[in-house]
Structure formats: structure tokens, C-alpha cells
Amino acid sequence: MNDILEQGLYKYLKSTELEKIKNTKILIAGSGGLGSNAAMMLVRCGFEQLTLIDYDDIEPSNLNRQYFFGDQVGQAKVIALQENLLRINPNLKLTIIKDKLNIDNVNTFIENQDIILEAFDDVNAEEFLDRYKLN
């Protein structure tokens, strides 16, 4: 974690709490309006181990609500988000997956995660992941 971020977090957290946060593995399924902003806030709160899954590219219509910038239009959302998050904390352990979550690959992506954040804008994908998490 970078020194500036860590100093700010120590104002609110004990070192044992921050260490637990740093070691929590979070999968964020979707890197749009909810996923990109959630990822940014989680990194600012000290989380360092994120897996980002999304298959989409940035469009101009995304810029009013997603954590992307004009010069990133056309890039894969997960690649641009990785770039933006590393500016907050260059020591992140990011796993970037430009793919669609489905029945064939869900086991691979979900295993060993402590927290799964469903951030899809596709109702069918939301239902699929919710059903899978219940099993």
C-alpha cells in the first residue's frame, strides 16, 4: 500500500484491522457504474486483492457514472479500471478477466474469494450468479 493511503487509513483503523482488510479477496463481477465505483472505494478503504470481471468496453455514455475518463473510451473496462486503481495504490494484487461469467467458468473465478460483489447490468447474469452463490 502506498504511504499516503496507509497514513490516512491509520487515522480510522487499527493495524490489525487494516491487515485483515488488505488480505481480504474480493471478486467484482461487472466493471460498470456499480462495479467501477465500488472498486475505487474499496481500494481507497485499503482492500488490495481484487478480481475484476467484465467483457465490455468503455463508451462515451459511460463517463457520467462510471470511474473512467474520456481518454479511455474504447478500452476494455477491466484494463482501464486496473489502470485507474493502480494510480490510487500501486501495490494492488489485481486479477483482470475480460470475459463473461457463465456456467462453464464461474467455478474458476469464484473459488478462493472471500467476498463476491455482483455488479452486473444484465438481469439474467444477476440471477445466474445469485443462484450459483446459493448452491
Task: Describe it.
Helix 3 (33-44) runs parallel beside helix 4 (77-88). Strands 3-2-1-4 form a four-stranded parallel beta sheet, with helices on both faces. Strand 2, helix 4 (77-88) and strand 3 form a beta-alpha-beta unit. It is built from six helices and four strands; from the N terminus they run ααβαβαβαβα. The mean pLDDT is 89. The longest helix has 12 residues, at 33-44. It has 135 residues and is α/β, with parallel strands linked by helices.
Give the radius of gyration. 15 Å
Strand order of the largest sheet: 3-2-1-4
Mean pLDDT: 89
Shape: globular
Low-confidence stretches: none
Roughly what percent helix? 40-55%
Question: For the terminal residues, how far apart are their CA atoms?
Answer: 35 Å
Order of helices and strands: HHEHEHEHEH
Name a few traits of the molecule.
alpha/beta; 4-stranded parallel sheet; 135 residues; 14% strand; globular
What topology emerges from the helices and strands here?
Layout: H1 3-10, H2 15-22, E1 25-29, H3 33-44, E2 49-53, H4 77-88, E3 93-97, H5 106-110, E4 115-118, H6 123-134
Parallel strand pairs: 1-2, 1-4, 2-3
Helix pairs in contact: 3-4
